[in-house]
Amino acid sequence: MTNVFVSVQNVDTKNTKWIDTRFSLQDIEAGRNKYAESHIAGAVYWDLERDLSDMTKSAGRHPMPEKEALTELFRVSGLALDDHIIIYDDGGSPFAARAWWLLQYAGFTNAFIALEGFAALQEAGVAIATMPTQPIKTAVTPKWDESIYASRQFVEETVAEKTASALLDARSAERYRGEVEPIDPIAGRIPGALNFDWEQLKKNGLFNMDAAVKEQLGQVIDAATEVTVYCGSGVTAAPLYAMLKHNGYENTRLYVGSYSDWISEEDANVEKDC
């Protein structure tokens, strides 16, 4: 079991680097505006589309930035590999998990997701600021962990049964079955994928730390199985990845391009139940 989440009751505010990832897919300026209004003192803001994605790419709807861009982001954010880092959003959202996964990929293994989000941190008495944080730039060099990253080629090999990995789709059951597709141009799923809707990970709007989640995950896929998670654009798959790691699934990858990347080429190979 990997410790991924930290609750407000256990937050150590000393020697902690904070990252604010609040965002809204319906209003892309909402998170940035919230940060400008107030944020945890010392927090830098990472925007889903400006910092945690490279929207100039065609590899899905939220493509992963190049390593050079991520390295610069880490440096201007004042980070070092051994820093104690807490990432927050509004709680129960996928954005802190997206940033957390990128930090894991880059070798920042002492990073955690704030379970309850900004409002609860503020209510718990964590210091708040209104002026933007201006960190001292570092020269950090990431230690990339390719074992948690799934490229399109890796997924193609998985579909062809050339890897030991199992695919796990984090979208709703209706989208997984191909009954509806409100976002992407082709309905269906990556062939052979199993399904676990990431919304099932939540209870009362926050990620559920109860043992029941581990039981639910275990009914879909065994903890000893190598798992590659994906969703529509790679964003909501991140909390499923995080919860898998939290519940003892040690051999887990994230397909950042996800379904939107999978169907980006002609003659996309998809499955559907209807």
Explain the layout of strands and helices:
Blueprint: E1 5-6, E2 16-20, H1 30-37, E3 39-40, E4 44-45, H2 67-76, E5 84-88, H3 95-105, E6 111-114, H4 118-123, E7 128-129, H5 152-159, E8 166-169, H6 173-177, E9 194-195, E10 202-203, E11 206-207, H7 211-220, E12 227-230, H8 237-246, E13 252-254, H9 258-262
Parallel strand pairs: 1-6, 2-4, 2-5, 5-6, 8-9, 8-12, 12-13
Antiparallel strand pairs: 3-7, 10-11
Helix pairs in contact: 3-8
Structural features, described:
The chain folds into two domains: 5-144, 3-Layer(aba) Sandwich (Oxidized Rhodanese, domain 1); 147-262, Rhodanese-like domain (Oxidized Rhodanese, domain 1, 3-Layer(aba) Sandwich), CATH 3.40.250. The protein is 27% helix and 14% strand. It contains nine helices and 13 strands. The chain has helices spanning 30-37, 67-76, 95-105, 118-123, 152-159, 173-177, 211-220, 237-246, 258-262; strands at 5-6, 16-20, 39-40, 44-45, 84-88, 111-114, 128-129, 166-169, 194-195, 202-203, 206-207, 227-230, 252-254. The strands form four sheets. Strands 1-6-5-2-4 form a five-stranded parallel beta sheet, with helices on one face. A four-stranded parallel beta sheet has the order 9-8-12-13, with helices on both faces. Helix 3 links the parallel strand 5 and strand 6. The protein is globular and about 50 Å long. The termini are far apart. The mean pLDDT is 96.
